[in-house]
Structure formats: structure tokens, C-alpha cells
Amino acid sequence: MLCRLIYRSTVVPPFDFDDLRSILAASERNNPPQGITGVLMTASMQFLQVMEGPSDNINELYRTLQRDTGHEHLRLVEFTAIQQRLFDGWAMRGVHRRLMSDELTTFLTKKYGSDESGHLTLPSTAFLATSLLFDVANTDIIGT
Length: 144
Hints:
- It is a single chain.
- By secondary structure, the protein is an alpha+beta fold.
- The chain has a domain at 2-97: Alpha-Beta Plaits (2-Layer Sandwich).
- It contains four helices and five strands; from the N terminus they run E-H-E-E-H-E-E-H-H.
- It has helices spanning 17-34, 55-67, 102-112, 126-137; strands at residues 2-11, 37-43, 46-54, 71-81, 93-96.
- It has a five-stranded mixed sheet with strand order 4-1-3-2-5, with helices on both faces.
- Strand 2 (37-43) and strand 3 form a beta hairpin.
- The radius of gyration is 14 Å and the shape is globular.
- The N and C termini lie far apart (41 Å).
């Protein structure tokens, strides 16, 4: 059965773009043989990730992520059976807030909200989390 899993978690500092690159490199090696695709976004010391693939493989990966010391306070946003993937183009696309263009950041902040400091708020509902991840996965995110 094909499924989609979305979770949020809090980044354990220190964390920078090189750490994200390392996660993505491991995903490029490990996810294709497992049939797993998705998007990992980091903003304001939070992760928001969607993973799609065979349910047994997604469950195993999520159990591994629960033991990962690079983040804490994992919160499952959604786990559901799907007919087709929304995020099939990447073993794991990485999106780091600091690499987004100002235009995209403004658009996303207006659409999804911001915290007291004006930083993008990562949604905690399945619909909005899927929408945000779809928006960033299908957009040229690099600022000029």
C-alpha cells in the first residue's frame, strides 16, 4: 500500500545548511531503493517533512527518525493511504528557509502565517502542511 506520512519536529542545535545537505545526501542514497520520495523543509528551527512510499518502508523510516538525536518532539501530522504521489520527483527535496527568495517568503508568510518575529509558521494540520510542502517543492526557491 502506498502512503503519505507528514511530521513536524524541533531541530536540536547546532544546525546549519551543511547539516541539511548531509541529511539530503543520505536520503539520495537510502530512499530510492526503498521507493521513498518526499520533501524536507526547515524554518525557524523546525522540520516539516513529507514522505511517500510503501507503507512498511515509510513506517520503518519514521521509526528510525524517532530515534534520531538531530531533532526532538516529533509530532505526526498525517499518515494516510494514497492513490498517487504528490512528491514523486525527489528522493528527498530539501528546502532551507534561508535559501528562499524574498518573494517566495512573503508569499508563504501571507498564505500560512508568521510568528511574533515575522518568521514563517510551519502548519500543524495535514491539509496546510501538504499545501506548504507542495508550494515549496514546485517553486524555484533560490533567491537572487
